[in-house]
Design brief:
By secondary structure, this protein is an alpha+beta fold. The chain has helices spanning 2-22, 46-63, 69-74, 84-94, 116-127, 130-135, 140-153, 155-159, and strands at residues 28-36, 82-83, 97-106, 164-173.
Length: 174
């Protein structure tokens, strides 16, 4: 996790430096990025819950002898979610931009009933290229079916998670 955080910080510092050169003094830019509320574990957010469903589906396939446990152990999604405090520090250290507004917003999930089919389609779309490259194309449909079953069994996990998982930021060039 420390390596991902270090890489994110390096990439974000470069991104902010480049944008500060492009935006005119007084100009603004808006960012919306996946984030974690300070002191909230990723497993308690919508994306974290969805990754747990993917993991459970993969382990079902291991238990059925379809894929190997070593394949799952070697599977890595290089995804990092920044904390609001961390993002504030990165922006403030830039010196060429200021924070006009920063807030955690809902990830898009509302308190209305969750559309299970839409969530499963989102998981499939997000994993459609990653899974076949590591495990082969022939497991995708079966994996999605397994994830769907897990999702329906444990939908309450998604309903009860912290939905504030997107950081909305308005920055101003100073």
């Amino acid at each position: 996790m420390k390596a991902y955080a270090a890489q994110f910080e390096s990439d974000m510092e470069n991104f902010l430096e480049a944008r500060a050169k492009e935006v005119v003094v007084g100009g603004v830019m808006v960012l919306a990025i996946q984030s974690l509320p300070d002191d909230v574990d990723q497993s308690k957010t919508p994306s974290g819950v969805m990754f747990k469903f993917v993991e459970a589906g993969l382990m079902d396939m291991v238990n059925a002898g379809i894929i190997g446990e070593l394949q799952v152990d070697m599977f890595n999604l290089s995804i990092y979610f920044v904390f609001a405090k961390q993002m504030t520090r990165l922006i403030e250290s830039n010196g060429s931009i200021s924070i006009e507004k920063m807030e955690l917003t809902d990830s898009g999930l509302k308190d209305a009933p969750i559309n299970a089919q839409a969530v499963i389609m989102q998981i499939r779309a997000g994993m459609e290229e990653v899974i076949p490259k590591h495990f082969g194309r022939d497991i995708v449909d079966e994996l999605v079916e397994s994830i769907s079953k897990k999702f329906m069994e444990d939908i309450h996990l998604l309903e009860s998670c912290n939905k504030k998982a997107q950081l909305f930021i308005v920055l101003k060039r100073i």
